[in-house]
Write the structure tokens for this entry.
Amino acid sequence: ILMSLRKYKQALWLQQVNDYALEHLKGGVLSQKTVGVVGTGHIGGRVIELLSGFGCRLLCHSADYDPKVAQIAEYTDLDTLYQSSDILTFHVPLLPSTKHMVNAEALKKMKEGVVLINTARGELFETEALIGGVENRKIGALAMDVFEGEDGIYHMDRTDDIIRNRDMAYLRQFPNVILTQHMAFYTQLSMDSMMGRDIVTTKRGTGMAPSIPSLDCRTELSPPVLPIWGGIMAGNGCSAGPRRWCPAGRGCPRGSRPRQTPFFRRSGGRFHSPAGQRERPEDSPGRSGGGGLPP
């Protein structure tokens, strides 16, 4: 949200050519904005809590009512939320009722120059409508950690490939559009939490505690480790060596090559690990939120 308001993408680009002028970088102030939060589950509620410190007006809409959220944000219907908000951030799961909830008709209800944030599911936004909204300046800024059709692109090294997604390439080139590779969830805290839950699940399922290598081994992997719900996928040079339990979740020998597959695969409203051994709900505990915290 702050990167979009303060035009940080433009500033970063201009610095690369030694242009330090302020001419195109006048930004907005969050405390003067009305922020609409769609979905007040675990993540949406936390977003509202964090935004309350900025002094902005907070509106929200959700399938479930949370009395704690109601103390700091005003619940309203979706049309009113669209019409009244300068910034809209979405934290809902992907369901038939939420797919393409931001489309051409929804954009007509929003303010001119609205800022849209999506760190939940790419399919919540209709890509064609986004392109039209940016082109006609209905959308003042767009920031997405997810993208419709991201499978096979995000979470993979495609450095030497020709990526056949014209919509993504076209949207990315706009100065007021920020796209990141589905990484909002990816922090040391969340990785530690995932590993802890996996360990507890293993103990409950087998009655035995796994042989766990030092967590420090994660900092010695090259390339850096990537998370999967079933554990950690390691790159070449894994220092853990062959063990009954290793960060790769499969007891791989030292130096084994990583599997070049995305570590999330969507299916039927759930996340699956690549091996299909575990399932995890699309949302964290609140059920009406989704994705990670906004950038």
In short: The mean pLDDT is 77.
